[in-house]
Specification:
By secondary structure, the chain is an alpha/beta fold. The protein contains seven helices and 38 strands.
């Protein structure tokens, strides 16, 4: 399956001001990296530090910035655009649309659908899916095999649920969302009241509200709220194996890498990024445009935009153990330093100035 270079550029003309230099009838068979591209592949150069790979690449055409145009022309066809990385991202979307094989709008005979559910005529429901009472499936939505849509749940227009996704009772998913296999949206939050050495369950009565253009990775879990809803705003991107606790609020266009954990009632602003394996403790606030490094533990609210890191550097084990032991002594060392400072201050106050100091 191939696409002409001219067709690719024309398809993105409404979004980008790009210029094709080379044969417009050149057929592209594959998208690839500079290193692995062959003579029928399309690639891109997103950063000047990879310029050396450009001359060596066998790609049929390369997407480049204006600064790299001359070097690109010397080796063959190129597409010149201000932001090659973003342009290539849109090419991947075009490629996916052109080459994906989607089933026609249909409901598989094995799907179990409550009579009160409302399903758009052009929606698709896969084998063994369950659509509960009062659930709503919007136009162009796709619910794949073995998905579960609980009572009064809702899936917006053109959203896609991969296999084995659960959208629990009263939870809603906006338009053009993508949910990858095994994600669970709307499980009970971790709420228990201690009583005489035992835990009594606090029923989780809220839901989960997810905005438009959100992507949720495989086996990620988003808990329903205890009283109010857990909220994921428009454009949020969540990687695989992320845990979002109950009553969390995530602002628009924030992105989180794999294995992030966000504890209950944390509020994360818009346009934030949180690196893989990082943890945000409960009831904290992160302002807009806060960026947390991988494996960091956020133990206090961050109210100023910027980059933040909180982790212990890796070292060989013997040195790490010595440093860890030293850290345990920091509190006592701080007290000793304070006592020493007070002693020095007292001595300085009692000291009689010399004749030279007086003059």
């Amino acid at each position: 399956m191939t696409l002409k270079l001219a067709a690719i550029v024309e398809s993105l003309a409404g979004e980008f001001d790009a210029r094709l230099i080379g044969d417009p009838d050149l057929m592209i068979e594959r998208l690839s990296s500079l290193e692995q591209a062959g003579p029928h592949d399309l690639s891109f150069l997103s950063h000047p530090k990879y310029s050396a790979k450009l001359a060596q690449s066998l790609a049929a055409c390369v997407v480049v910035a204006p600064a790299a145009q001359q070097a690109a022309v010397q080796r063959g066809a190129c597409i010149v655009v201000a932001d090659p990385y973003r342009y290539f991202a849109h090419i991947t979307q075009l490629w996916k649309r052109e080459h994906s094989i989607l089933p026609a709008a249909s409901i598989h005979p094995s799907a179990c659908i409550d009579p009160s559910a409302r399903i758009a005529p052009d929606a698709r429901v896969g084998a063994f899916a369950f659509i509960g009472p009062g659930a709503v499936l919007g136009s162009g939505a796709h619910v794949a095999e073995h998905c579960v849509l609980g009572p009064n749940s809702a899936v917006g227009r053109d959203s896609r649920l991969s296999a084995r996704v659960t959208l629990a009772e009263g939870c809603s998913l906006g338009e053009r969302c993508i949910v990858h296999p095994g994600a669970v949206i709307g499980a009970d939050g971790f709420g228990f009241a201690p009583h005489q050495g035992r835990w009594e369950k606090i029923e989780q009565l809220g839901g989960v509200r997810i905005g438009n253009d959100v992507e949720i990775g495989a086996n990620t879990c988003i808990d329903r709220g205890a009283l109010q809803d857990t909220v994921i705003e428009d454009g949020v991107k969540l990687d695989n194996l992320i845990q979002i606790g109950h009553n969390v609020h995530i602002g628009a266009h924030t992105a989180m890498a794999g294995c992030v954990g966000v504890a209950g009632s944390a509020r994360i602003g818009a346009h934030c990024t949180i690196g893989g394996g990082a943890v945000v403790l409960g009831h904290l606030t992160l302002a807009d445009h806060v960026h947390i490094s991988a494996a960091s533990v956020v133990t206090r609210s961050i109210l100023k935009p910027g980059n933040y890191t909180g982790l212990f550097p890796i070292d060989d084990n013997a040195a790490w153990e010595k440093n860890a032991a030293s850290l345990k002594q920091l509190h006592a060392l701080r007290d000793r330093v304070r006592l020493l400072e007070r002693t020095l201050d007292d001595d300085a106050a009692k000291r009689v100035p010399t004749t030279k100091e007086k003059s």
